[in-house]
Amino acid sequence: MEKIKERFANFQKALLRLKEAVEERSDNPLLYDGAIQRFEFTYELAWKLLKAYLEYQGIVNISSPRAVFKEAFSVGLIENQEKWLKIIEDRNLTVHTYDECVAKIIFERIKSDYLPLFIELEKRVEELIK
């Protein structure tokens, strides 16, 4: 459980930084870059947090983000599996290519779709580790 609490604390810090970036004015290209980088950190910490929790519950042999999100959905840790899987696609786009138009689209998805998912995850895990 200590590993989960440590990962959760790191996830919370990244989520706070992501919230700060998303709340800024969105007409600055530097903002997109910063917010997307914070999104990438938050994503990494989210799937690793879920993986640690699943392992704590005895669910092992899951090593990819896709497998972790699917398993977390199947056991009720997260909702809206489609959006969680879309996060993987968008994260891969941001890591492997840079296009300002794509960055703006993903920035908007972070604000509208992904930030709420991360916030839901934070609340859910907080309930589970109390």
UniProtKB/TrEMBL annotation:
Gene Ontology molecular functions: transferase activity
Keyword Transferase part of the UniProt annotation: yes
Pfam families assigned: NTase_sub_bind
Keyword list, A-Z: Transferase
Name this protein carries in UniProt: Nucleotidyltransferase substrate binding protein, HI0074 family
Species for this entry: Caldicellulosiruptor acetigenus (strain ATCC 700853 / DSM 12137 / I77R1B)
